């Protein structure tokens, strides 16, 4: 399956933004990273990571890939 740049993952897979956010937070805690640590690895502001974790931000395929890289997991690991 091909994705368009910037396409919202949760819309494609009908995955709730909150579900992805909870998974990001869980993996971040396992790796003992702060939101600021992960934000630096991903290249965004820490408030952006917080909004993703709370389900307040849409998550694009590009952001999923960056977060997965920062957490040292595969993008599929961010899904239930």
What brief labels describe this structure?
single chain, about 80 residues, mainly alpha, 434 Repressor (Amino-terminal Domain), globular
How would you describe this structure to a colleague?
This protein has a single domain, classed as 434 Repressor (Amino-terminal Domain) (Orthogonal Bundle). By secondary structure, the chain is an all-alpha fold. The chain has helices at 9-13, 17-30, 35-42, 46-53, 61-71. It is built from five helices and no strands. The two termini are 18 Å apart.
In short:
The protein is mainly alpha-helical.
- Continuous helix count: 5
Q: What is the helical fraction, as a range of percent? A: 55-70%
CATH topology description? 434 Repressor (Amino-terminal Domain)
**Radius of gyration based on Cα positions:** 11 Å
Order of H and E elements? HHHHH
Strand content range: under 5%
User: Termini, distance in Å?
Assistant: 18 Å
CATH homologous superfamily title: lambda repressor-like DNA-binding domains
Number of strands: 0
The unreliable regions are: 9-14
Structural class comes to mainly alpha
CATH class: Mainly Alpha
CATH architecture assignment name: Orthogonal Bundle
Oligomer category = single chain
The tally of domains stands at 1
Outline the secondary-structure elements.
Layout: H1 9-13, H2 17-30, H3 35-42, H4 46-53, H5 61-71
Helix pairs in contact: 3-4, 3-5
């Amino acid at each position: 399956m091909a994705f368009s740049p910037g396409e919202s993952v949760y819309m494609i897979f009908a995955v709730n933004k909150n579900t992805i956010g909870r998974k990001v937070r869980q993996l971040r805690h396992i790796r003992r990273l702060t939101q600021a640590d992960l934000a630096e690895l991903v290249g965004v502001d820490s408030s952006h990571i917080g909004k993703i974790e709370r389900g307040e931000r849409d998550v694009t395929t590009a952001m999923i890939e960056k977060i997965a890289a920062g957490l040292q997991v595969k993008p599929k690991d961010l899904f239930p």
